[in-house]
């Protein structure tokens, strides 16, 4: 006890109190004070210090005694941890040779290839900062990101070459490194890829260099590892932009390492000998932090999928039989309907994990039933987070995996609910804004102090809290439930508040419905206020029965929803628009509704 900080002592005390090990202790009724979730963590997890090192150092220290294990499987090209570290070093030398220095920002417009991983950790080792950009970004969007960072160096996927060439003269870029998905493929697959993509071969201008040539430039180059500095930025990622223009989030080594350490402390069975299917893109915090850094620090073999098609999720499971994987809820709709997995044995799976969006209770129950029927001993594992908190701050544990919840806060994280109007903390089971405090909180938005101050606010308790913009509540066990977005909340002309998630849960009860999304539309009878409209996708066997299904939906809503929450209409669509990582793009639906209603 002598070596613990005051905060650690307090956390340990509350954990013992929650476990009933301290007589006479009474809960306050407020999550941030009681921390009821600590009862689910081991004493070691509560007391353990977080890593204080760079993400590269964390990776090295965790694997330096297991260098012959396979780190990456890229279309059956197996790269050991020894090769991984050797290639990271070659990449460091190459970046040094072209002039990259500590503190430089390197824009990376790539997908998940081995070269992307080498670059992420090489730049960490140098003290430089990767600025991750989705290759699907528009030409002007790419230009804006490069100008925002005043970047002199850019790593791109070869398919982005033409886009970048259109705007490069208007930037400060001095060197562009071009990566092909074929660069690390096994020889036969590489030849086939090159034959199929012959027309895509480019004759690069002087400012560009192909990856293999880039590597050669670093031969004999000297370098020195950058010193770890607490709170220093090591990664830049962009928000989804569903509530306005995307913002550039600065994350530190501490953020990413805390994410990994706390994920391990949840108690999920994650071992070095396990395998991991990486289907999330590297240009989101969820993709690098959870999809790559977590399994690689543990020492697993990671199967890289540079271009993921949700419709082929079942193919990947059948081919690779991964022990672990992460994704978003919509991917599991594909699994439930898969004929390939009809009689499959999924006993190899441990804690199939989702994040990025809430899973409707009926879908969660269906997935859990599917997993059990296919010999998986685990339920779907849910988590919660956002880019501004390094993608993850909560997760379900074996002892507490309640239907509809997104888990309990991580061991070093505090989550609580606050009143939108008064700013006061709310007691258990009351809906308000979800706020987060802990080691995962971002440094801030790049060159956007006003937006940073708007989302990170110091409360009366003196603690800096991230205001998530999500509406939710917490029960006495510490389980967090998300009911919607503050900005998605539909406020009627009479002030009644309607949560789209409540409507969606009711509509989803019909077996004919594959997916749905409720959005607010302007009330034509009043100068202000919104009313709910539901976009619905019908399962294939029920196509053509929309008229009857419409009546069923309205009848069900009439019986299960209050009068003020009744949808004014049901619109049937072939599919719901999705964001790049698979979330339902409700902003696109709001725009569609606005245009259709004039």
Tell me about this structure.
- The chain has 598 residues and is an alpha/beta fold.
- It has a 9-stranded mixed sheet with strand order 2-1-11-10-12-13-14-15-16, sandwiched between helices. Strands 4-3-5-6-7 form a 5-stranded parallel sheet, sandwiched between helices.
- The longest helix has 17 residues, at 81-97.
- The radius of gyration is 25 Å and the shape is globular.
- The model has no long low-confidence stretch (mean pLDDT 91).
Q: What's the CATH class of the largest domain, please? A: Alpha Beta
Taking all residues together, what is the mean pLDDT? 91
> Strand-residue fraction?
15-25%
Task: Tell me the domain tally.
Answer: 3
Through-space gap between termini: 66 Å
Biggest pleated sheet: 9 strands, mixed
Remind me, CATH topology of the largest domain? Answer: Rossmann fold
Write the topology of this structure.
Blueprint: H1 6-18, H2 31-34, H3 43-47, H4 55-63, E1 70-74, E2 77-80, H5 81-97, E3 105-109, H6 114-126, E4 129-132, H7 139-149, E5 153-157, H8 161-167, E6 175-179, H9 187-196, E7 208-210, H10 211-217, E8 233-238, E9 248-252, H11 253-264, E10 275-278, H12 285-298, E11 301-304, H13 313-320, E12 324-327, H14 331-336, E13 353-354, H15 361-373, E14 381-384, E15 394-395, E16 408-409, E17 414-418, E18 432-437, E19 444-445, H16 449-455, E20 456-458, E21 464-474, E22 480-485, E23 490-491, E24 497-498, H17 500-507, E25 513-522, E26 530-538, H18 546-560, E27 569-572, H19 586-596
Helix pairs in contact: 4-12, 5-6, 5-10, 7-8, 11-12
């Amino acid at each position: 006890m002598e070596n613990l900080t005051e905060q650690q002592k307090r956390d340990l005390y509350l954990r013992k109190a929650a476990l009933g090990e301290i007589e006479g202790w009474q809960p306050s009724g407020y999550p941030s004070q009681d921390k009821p979730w600590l009862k689910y963590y081991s004493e070691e997890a509560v007391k353990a210090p977080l890593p204080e090192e760079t993400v590269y150092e964390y990776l090295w220290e965790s694997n330096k005694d297991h260098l012959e294990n396979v780190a990456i499987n890229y279309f059956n090209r197996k790269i050991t941890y020894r090769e991984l570290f050797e290639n990271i070093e070659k990449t460091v030398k190459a970046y040094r040779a072209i002039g990259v220095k500590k503190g430089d920002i390197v824009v990376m417009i790539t997908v998940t290839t081995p070269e992307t991983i080498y670059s992420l950790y090489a730049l960490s080792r140098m003290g430089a900062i990767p600025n991750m950009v989705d290759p699907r970004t528009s030409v002007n969007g790419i230009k804006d990101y490069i100008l925002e960072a005043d970047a002199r160096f850019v790593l791109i996927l070869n398919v982005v070459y033409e886009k970048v060439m259109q705007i490069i003269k208007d930037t400060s870029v001095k060197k562009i490194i071009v990566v092909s998905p074929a660069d690390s493929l096994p020889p036969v697959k590489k030849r086939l890829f090159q034959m199929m993509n012959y027309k895509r071969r480019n004759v690069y201008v002087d400012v560009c260099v192909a990856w293999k040539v880039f590597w050669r430039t670093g031969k004999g180059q000297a370098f020195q590892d950058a010193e770890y500095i607490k709170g220093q930025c090591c990664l830049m990622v962009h928000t989804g932009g569903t509530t306005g223009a995307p913002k550039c989030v600065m994350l530190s080594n501490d953020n990413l390492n805390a994410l990994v350490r706390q994920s391990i402390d949840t108690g999920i069975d994650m071992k070095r000998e396990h395998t991991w299917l990486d289907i999330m893109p590297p240009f989101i915090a969820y993709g690098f932090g959870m999809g790559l850094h977590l399994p690689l620090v543990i020492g697993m073999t990671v199967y890289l999928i540079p271009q993921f098609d949700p419709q082929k999720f079942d193919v990947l499971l059948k081919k690779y039989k991964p022990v672990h994987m992460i994704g978003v809820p919509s991917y599991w709709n594909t699994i439930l309907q898969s004929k390939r997995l009809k009689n499959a044995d999924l006993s190899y799976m441990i804690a199939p994990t989702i994040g990025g969006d809430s899973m409707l209770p009926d879908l969660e129950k269906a997935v859990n039933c599917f997993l059990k029927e296919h010999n998986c001993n685990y339920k779907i594992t849910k988590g919660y987070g956002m880019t501004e908190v390094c993608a993850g701050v909560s997760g379900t544990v074996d002892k507490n995996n309640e239907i509809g919840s997104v888990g309990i806060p991580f061991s070093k994280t505090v989550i609580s609910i606050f009143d939108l109007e008064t700013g006061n903390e709310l007691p258990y089971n009351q809906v308000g804004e979800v706020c987060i405090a802990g080691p995962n909180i971002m440094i801030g938005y790049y060159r956007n102090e006003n937006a940073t101050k708007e989302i990170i606010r110091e409360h009366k308790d003196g603690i800096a809290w991230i205001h998530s913009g999500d509406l939710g509540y917490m029960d006495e066990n510490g389980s967090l439930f998300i009911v919607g977005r503050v900005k998605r909340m539909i406020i009627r002309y009479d002030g009644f508040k309607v949560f789209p998630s409540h409507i969606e849960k009711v509509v989803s009860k019909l077996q004919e419905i594959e997916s749905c999304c409720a959005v607010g539309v302007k009330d034509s009878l009043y100068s202000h206020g919104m009313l709910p409209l539901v976009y619905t996708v019908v399962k294939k066997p029920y196509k053509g029965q929309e008229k009857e299904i419409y009546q069923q939906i309205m009848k069900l809503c009439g019986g299960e929803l209050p009068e003020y929450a009744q949808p004014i209409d049901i619109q049937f669509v072939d599919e719901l628009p999705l964001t790049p990582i698979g979330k339902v793009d409700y902003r696109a639906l709001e725009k569609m509704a606005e245009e259709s209603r004039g």
